[in-house]
Amino acid sequence: MSSIDESQPPGPAEMDKRFEPKQYEPAWQRFWREHDLFRSQTRRETDRPSFCILIPPPNVTGRLHIGHALQSSLQDLIVRWKRMQGYNALWLPGTDHAGIGTQLMVERQLAAEGTSRQEIGRERFLERTWAWKQQYHSNIREQLERLGASCDWSRERFTMDDGLSLAVRTAFVRLYREGRIHRGEYMVNWSPGLQTAVSDLEVESKSVRGKLYRIAYAVEGSDQKLVVATTRPETMLGDTAIAVHPADPRYQALIGRHAILPLLGRRIPIVADQAVDPEFGSGAVKVTPWHDPNDFEIARRHGLPGLRVIGFDGRMTAEAGPSFGGLDRFAARERVLEALRELGLLVGVDDHVHNVGHSQRGGEPIEPMVSKQWFCDVGDMARGALAAVRDGRIELQPDGWVKTWEHWLESIRPWCISRQLWWGHRIPAWYTPDGECVVALDFEEAAGLAGTRELEQDSDVLDTWFSAALWPISTLGWPDEDSEDLATFYPTDVLVTGFDILFFWVARMAMMGLHFGGDVPFRRVHLTGLVRDARGEKMSKTKGNVLDPLELVDEYGADAVRFTLCALDSPGRDIPLDPERMAGYRAFGNKIWNATRFALSRIGDARVPEHLDAVGLAAPERWILSRFSRTAGFVNDRFEAFRFDEACQRLYHFFWGDLCDWYIELAKPALFGDETSRPRVAEVLLWVLERSLRLLHPVMPHLTEELWHRLPGIDHSGVVAVALARYPEPEPKWEDEELEQRFEALQQVVSRVRTLRTERGLERRARLGLWIEGGVEREVAFVLEQGDLVRSLALLEELRQGAGPKDAVRDRVAGVELAIEVEAAKLGEVERERLGKELERIAGETRSVEARLANPQFVDRAPGEVVAGARARLAELEQRRAVLAAQLAGH
Questions:
Q1: Please, are residues 487 and 473 in contact by the beta-carbon 8 Å criterion?
Q2: What's the N-to-C CA distance of the chain in angstroms?
Q3: Which strand (E) or helix (H) includes residue 205?
Q4: Rounded to 5, what percent of the chain is helix, strand, coil?
Q5: Largest distance between two CA atoms of the chain
Q6: Which H helix or E strand runs over 140?
C-alpha cells in the first residue's frame, strides 16, 4: 500500500480516561487531508485494479441533510473497504448548480434589496449568482469532511465548470444533429411563481379537499343538456370539445354532434375516446387541450385545436373572454361559478378529495400548460437502458425496483429539457434575424454555420437533470476521448442514491452513458430508503422533526452517526432514525476505547506481530482467532452484497461480545500473571485488536485510526494509516466450529451463574459453588477442562464434577446439567417470574418438537440424524422442565 515519509499522526501519547470523539475526529480529518491519502491514480500510474464511486452531487448552495449523511456514509464505507482491499479506489466528489433552487435564493436576496433579476438584467444577475456560488461552495466539502468522507478532492467537479459545460454542449449538439432533440409545443408542468417549466420530480402531489362542479352544456339543435363534471371550472373557457366513452350507451346518439360552450357560446364537438372513464362524474368530460395533460392527448388523437386561457403568469388571457381576462386563475374560478349560477347552468356541487400538483420550490399549484420547449426523444436510448438491467450489465439493489425501472422506461415520453431560467447551461441554439435556428458548440461555430454574426442565443437553459445525466462521463473527462480518468474509471462500479430519483437521474445516466460512453455508467446501483423520524414519519420543517447531521455529529461524534445510519440501511425499507441509537453506538465506541486502553496497560513489551502462528496456542486464543476469521468472512460477504445492516450488527457483536466481554476477560488471568500455561496471550490480543480495528475502519474511520496508531509494533513508515492497511480476509485454517460450540457451552454456563447472582441480589464478592452433574460428554469435558477460567469468569468458590448439594439451584444449559450452591434464601419475585416464563417457553418448544415427531412424513423422510436430534432435544427439554419445576416448587 501507499506510504508517506515523516508523517506524524495526531493524538496524545497517553490515552485519556474519557472517551471524547471531538478530541480526535477533527485531527484525523486534517491528517487525511494534509497527507492527501485518498488521491487516486490513472492506469498509467498504477497497475492496481480500479474502483470508482461518483457522489450524487448535492446542491452547491445547500446544507447536507440526513439523507445525504446516509448516502455519504455508505459510499465512504464502500470506497474505504475497496481501497483497503488494494484497489485504486476513487470516490469522486462534486456539486450541482441546482438551477431553480440557486436562482430562487439569489432572487430572494435581490428582493430583500428592493430589486429583481429583471431590473438588473441577465448579465449582472449571473454575476451575482456566481458570487453566491463561490461564497457557499466550500460548505459541502466541509460538511462531508466532518463525516469522514475519503473523497479525492483533487478531482472535485461542478456541473457548470468549463469541462462539464463543454460536455453538456457537446451532448446537446450531437443529439440535435442525430434528430433526437427538437423544439415544439408540448404539455409541461408550469410553475407560475417561478415562471418556468419544472420536472415531475419538482412537483409535489398534495391531497386537497376541493369540489366537483357539475355544469350543463346545451346540445346544439335540441333542448337536451349534457352535464360534465370538473374540479377546475375556470378552464372550461378553453374547452374545444366534450368527450364520452365510445361504449357508453347514454351518449351514443350524441357522438358526432356539437354542444354550446356556456358563457362564451362557442360551438364544440362531442367526440368518443377510450380514455374517458364512464364511472367518473357524469361520464362526459370537458376537453381543454392546453391546460390538462389527458385532454392534450385526446386533442391530438382527434385533431382538436387548443386555446391558452391561462397565461404563464397564472392570470386569464384575452382568449378567456372580456369578463375574465386579466383575472388571477383562482379569482376567475369564482367569477365563472357566479356566472354559471346566474344562468342556472351549475347543476351540482359535491365535496371531492383529489390530488393536486404543487411546485416543490414555489409552493403554488402547478399549471399544466402547453408551451414551446426543447424536447429530447429518448425512446431508443430507453430501450438500451432496459436491456442493460435485463441482461445484468446494471444490477439494481434491491431488485424489487426492476419492475419500476421497466414500467418507466417502457412508457417513456419525450423529455422536456428546457427551463425558463437564467442560471444554468444556456441552450446552445442561436436565431438569425429571419428566424432560422442554428445549433452549435459556441457562437463562432454558429456564426460560421449561419453565415452571419447577427445571432441571438436562445434565452432558455437546460434542465438541471440534463447535465446530471452526463455526470458519470463528464466528470471523468468526456468528451475528451483520450481522457486518462475516463479510460481508468469508466464504467464506474457502484452508485448509491435514493430510490426517489431512480427515473429522473439513474435511468437518464444509464441512457446517456450507453449512448455517449459506449457502456453502462455503473455496474451496480444501491437504492436507499428515506430517513424518517423515530416514529416512522417523514421529516419536515413544519413538523419540527428534522435532524441535522452536523448537530448529531457534535453530540455523538461522526463515527456514531455513520455506524447508526449504516446499521439501519436495510434493503427496500425506509429508515426510522432515533438519536438514542446514536447514543448506543457512541457507547459502543466508548467500549472499544476502554478495551484498548486496558489492553495497552497490560501487554508489557508485546508488539503487534506481522504474522501469527496459531500452533501451540491455548483454547481461548484459538477460539478468538476462529471467531475473528468467521467475522471477517461474514463482513466481507455482507459488504459485497450491500447488506450493511447485517455487517454492522456482526461487527458490533464481535467487538462488544466476543472481543471485549469474553476474550479480554479470558485473557486477564494470563495478563495479570496468574497463569503460565497460555503462551503469547498479549501477542494474540494485540493481533486480534489490530485486525479488528481494520475490520471496523470503513464504518468508524476516526476511532479506528486513533486507536490503530496507538498500538505498539506497527511500522508506520510502511503503512501510514489504517485507512491504507490491508483489509482482513478470513483465515479458514483458524476456523474451528467444534471449538466454538464448546466455548458457547462454557459461555452459557458462566452466564447462568452470573444471572443467578444478579437475580438473587448477591454481591460480587459472594462466592458460589458450581457442580457439573452431567450432560453431553463433550461439553461437560470442555467446561471442566477450562475450570480455572470458568471459576475466574463466574467468580466461583469451587467447581466440581458430581452431585451437588440437595438445596442447590439446578438447571440445564447447552447440554450441561448444573447445580449452583447459593445462600439459602426464598426465591424472589424476579426469579420466580423468570422461571415461570422459561417453563412457558420450554412448554411451547416441547409441543413443537412433539408435533414434528408425530408427523409420519417427518419421521419417514427427514435424515436419520435430524430425527435423532429432535428426539434428543425432546428428552433434554423434558429433563430441563422437571429441573425448573422442582426449583420453582422449592425442592
A1: no
A2: 66
A3: strand 203-219
A4: 50, 20, 35
A5: 112
A6: helix 122-146
**Whole-angstrom distance, CA of residue 809 vs CA of residue 811:** 7
> Residue 232: phi, psi to the nearest 5?
-130, 75
Which pLDDT tens digit goes with each residue over 162-221?
999 999 999 999 999 999 999 998 888 888 888 888 877 678 888 888 889 999 999 998
- List 783's β-bridge partners, or say none: none
Find cell 461555430 and name the residue: 445
Q: Find the radius of gyration of the CA atoms of the chain.
A: 36
Output the pLDDT for position 882.
73
Looking at residue 11, its pLDDT comes to: 46
Contact yes or no for 267/235 (Cβ under 8 A)? no
C-alpha cell at 598: 486496558
Question: All 3 cell numbers of residue 125?
Answer: 444577475
Q: Is the pLDDT of residue 889 over 70?
A: no
Average model confidence (pLDDT) across the chain: 90
Q: What is the model's pLDDT at position 505?
A: 95
What DSSP string runs through 250-319?
A: GGGGGTT-EEE-TTT--EEEEEE-TT--TTSTTSEEEE-GGG-HHHHHHHHHHT------B-TTSBB-GG
6 φψ region: left (φ > 0), alpha (ψ -120 to 50), beta (else): left
Residue 323 phi, psi (nearest 5): -80, -15
Distances (CA, A) of 331 to 237, 263, 280, 327: 14, 16, 26, 6
Give the number of other CB atoms < 10 A from CB of residue 596.
22
Span of 132-146, 370-384, 763-777 with lowest mean pLDDT: 763-777
State the pLDDT at residue 298: 93
3-class secondary-structure state, position 457: strand
Omega within 30 of 0 (cis) for the link into 10 = no
**Which of 505, 387, 517, 392 has the alpha carbon at shortest distance from 55?**
505
Report the distance separating Cα 759 and Cα 833, nearest Å.
11
Instruction: Kindly report, residue by residue over 722-774, the tens digit of the pLDDT.
Output: 999 999 999 999 999 999 999 999 999 999 998 888 777 777 777 789 999 89
Q: What's the rounded Cα separation, in Å, for the pair 889 and 883?
A: 10
At residue 604, the pLDDT reads 87
Q: Of 736, 521, 518, 453, which Cα lies nearest the Cα of 618? A: 736
What is the Cα–Cα distance from 248 to 228, expressed in whole angstroms? Answer: 14
**DSSP code of residue 47:** -
pLDDT at position 7 is 44
Residues in the chain, total: 891
Partners of residue 374 on adjacent β-strands: 183
Please tell me whether residue 94 adopts helix, strand or coil conformation.
strand
550/463 Cα distance (integer angstroms)? 31
* Separation CA 385–CA 509 (nearest Å): 9
How many other C-beta atoms are found inside a 10 Å radius of the C-beta of residue 60? 22
Per DSSP, the chain holds a count of helices (H) and strands (E) of 29, 29
CA distance 873 to 877: 6
pLDDT over 80 (residue 8): no
Say what the pLDDT of residue 672 is: 86
What pLDDT digit, counting tens, does each position of 465-482 carry? 999 999 999 999 999 989
d(Cα 671, Cα 164) in Å, to the nearest integer? 60
Q: Which amino acid is at 573?
A: R
Does residue 484 contact residue 155 with C-beta atoms inside 8 Å?
Answer: no
